[in-house]
Specification:
The structure holds two protein chains of two kinds. Chain A is an all-alpha fold. Chain A has helices at residues 6-15, 20-31, 35-51, 61-79, 85-99, 109-122, 125-136, 141-148, 152-170, 177-180. Chain B folds into three domains: 7-66 and 97-112, no CATH class; 115-252, Jelly Rolls (Sandwich), CATH 2.60.120.1440; 262-333, Phage tail protein beta-alpha-beta fold, CATH 3.55.50. Chain B contains eight helices and 18 strands. Chain B has helices spanning 7-23, 27-38, 41-56, 98-103, 250-257, 271-279, 291-294, 307-318, and strands at residues 115-119, 126-129, 135-138, 143-147, 154-166, 174-178, 181-185, 188-194, 200-207, 209-214, 221-226, 230-234, 245-247, 263-270, 285-288, 297-303, 320-325, 328-333. Chain B is globular, with a radius of gyration of 26 Å. Chain B starts with 6 loop residues before the first helix and ends in a 6-residue tail after the last strand. The chains are: A mainly alpha, B alpha+beta. At the A-B interface, helix 1, helix 3, helix 4, helix 5 and helix 6 of A face helix 1, helix 3, strand 14, strand 16 and helix 8 of B.
Chain lengths: 202, 339
């Protein structure tokens, strides 16, 4: 009901999360950062987006998020005072995003659905059941506990675990094809059937 | 630097919180969550990301039936990140004073009688070593006058922006004059700006600063102390009040000091104000044609000498178009049917 940051998280779910694999791929290509560093950059990026006063006027959230991620990366460079020659080249490469703003990015409903499906498929059975009842059947934590004969705190724990499986699909390794692709945004080349089930309404 | 939490450790806690939030928080838990979020800037990011993933997953309803796994695992273990190679230590080797010292060039200029003047050109950022190890960094188009008799312990900021790292010298305070203010420190570091149409601002990153103001010959002297990680802001001609001093958070500090690396950093400023910041670094002028566009908030770090790159990035974010004509870059709203 009055969950903190809920409205912003809705916006992130709709406009940013679907582009996270592409963002990671992009960061990986141009910064030669380790996965752990990219994890840091991604978290900082979400943090900044969460703190923005308003997102209502951001027309291209993907471009905006990439810009923020780039800034976070540069901030890190400065904080560590790394002025190695390599980073200069990286900076030059960073310019690409500015010079070639991509065409408007749409969230591929079908692709996102497959992603969620795969994540649920990854979950251990009990976690999957909990997740399904909570997220799809819409049961409360208590109702879920009753139905599955589990303690409430176990349901809560399994919900958190389910979340980790979902996040893993957006995080590192979630989309291996991203790393190897040569296109600016590999998700662009995916085909979306015109009548694919689009974003589900709430 | 103390142990830095790994992103995956943060994710563990963040997902637990997201699950708790889903079932509703008690008042005590809300407080606890706030405390946790305040501990590291990445935590909020991890938290909203987890919450977003939870929301994003509502589309699973379209699947109709619960997906089956290929290989049922009943252990209930979430994907662990233990298996991955140990995190590389953050490269802090160059983090000491060495990097700064190396880039400091001595620049003594013979000035007029009682002062010597140090100036930086447009687009230039100068590092200057003063007597006794104190270092001065001048932002673009800035000028300071150093009192010759002071042994480099007294200067006045005539215009622009500077950063001063003051080394302790025999209890002798370092004094900086700006407008009708006198700033004093025995040892410390701070930035100070005196820009047209903008308040005087000092930001202390080390030690503390005493700011005093004398108004007229008989006016009472007013004084405030600005501690580490605090900023002092004063509109021109205003009187000092204790409320002029405010604490700053880490992110803000980065933002205010980005100019030292030739960068401009924005954290939600209006585009109209952001473009003006570029004016000081070169002949190029960015003009935002559309007033609605001019009110958009801008976040990010940009090269101060690359207004074109900034304009392009802004245009990409807000769906605007960039045109240029000589030294003038125009950002205007795109006239497209919205779809």
């Amino acid at each position: 009901m009055d969950a903190p940051f809920l409205a912003r998280s809705r916006w992130l779910a709709e406009h940013i999360l679907p582009h996270e694999p592409a963002m990671r791929g992009w960061l990986g290509r141009i910064t030669s950062k380790s996965q752990a560093d990219i994890d840091d950059i991604v978290q900082e990026t979400y943090s900044i987006l969460a703190r923005l006063e308003s997102v209502a006027t951001i027309r291209d959230p993907r471009a905006y998020a990439l810009q923020v991620a780039k800034s976070v990366f540069l901030q890190g460079l400065r904080r560590n005072k790394i002025v190695a020659i390599g980073s200069i080249n990286d900076l030059a490469a960073l310019g690409e995003i500015d010079d070639a703003p991509s065409p408007e990015q749409h969230v591929h409903g079908q692709r996102e659905l497959r992603r969620v499906e795969a994540a649920i498929g990854d979950m251990p059975l009990q976690v999957r059941k909990v997740f399904w009842l909570r997220r799809v059947e819409g049961l409360s934590q208590r109702e879920t506990a009753q139905q599955l004969g589990l303690a409430e705190h176990t349901v809560e724990k399994y919900s958190a675990k389910g979340l980790k499986y979902l996040l893993a699909r957006f995080g590192r390794g979630g989309n291996p094809s991203v790393e190897s692709s040569r296109t600016q945004d590999p998700t662009l080349v995916e085909f979306e059937p015109p009548n694919a089930p689009s974003r589900t309404s709430q | 630097m103390p142990h830095r939490e790994r992103a995956s450790e943060i994710d563990d806690v963040a997902t637990a919180w997201a699950a708790k939030v889903e079932r509703g928080l008690t008042t005590a838990e809300k407080t606890e969550l706030d405390l946790w979020l305040d501990g590291d800037s990445r935590r909020l990011g991890a938290f909203v990301r987890a919450q977003a993933a939870w929301i994003h997953a509502e589309r699973a309803a379209a699947l109709g039936a619960m997906p089956e796994t290929q290989e049922p695992a009943l252990t209930g273990d979430a994907p662990d990140e233990e298996a991955r190679p140990p995190r590389l230590s953050r490269r802090l080797v160059l983090g000491g004073g060495g990097a700064l010292a190396a880039s400091v060039a001595a620049a003594y200029i013979v000035g007029i009688e009682r002062y010597r003047t140090l100036e930086s050109g447009i687009g230039e950022i100068r590092h200057i070593a003063l007597n006794g190890g104190t270092t001065l960094t001048l932002d673009t188009d800035s000028r300071v006058d150093i009192a010759l008799a002071s042994g480099d312990r007294k200067l006045s900021l005539v215009r622009g922006r500077m950063f001063l790292d003051v080394i302790l010298r025999q209890e002798m305070p370092f004094m900086v004059q700006v407008g009708d203010l006198l700033l004093q420190t025995a040892e410390g570091a701070f930035s100070l700006q005196s820009l047209v149409n903008s308040p005087i601002m000092a930001l202390v990153t080390k030690g503390s600063l005493i700011v005093s103001q004398s108004h007229g010959m008989f006016g009472q002297k007013r004084t405030v102390r600005v501690g580490t990680d605090h900023a002092f802001t004063l509109a021109s001609d205003a009187l000092i009040r204790a409320t002029d001093v405010r604490p700053i958070v880490a992110g803000q500090q980065e933002q205010f000091l980005a100019w030292r690396d030739g960068m401009l950093s924005f954290g939600g400023q209006m585009l109209a104000d952001a473009v003006r910041a570029f004016d000081r670094y070169g002949p190029t002028r960015i003009v935002v044609v559309d007033p609605e566009l001019a009110r958009q908030k801008v976040t990010g770090l940009f090269k101060a000498d690359d207004p074109r790159g900034f304009a392009t990035a802004v245009a990409a974010s807000f769906g605007a178009v960039v045109t240029s004509d000589g030294d003038v870059i125009r950002i205007s709203a795109q006239k497209l049917p919205t779809g």
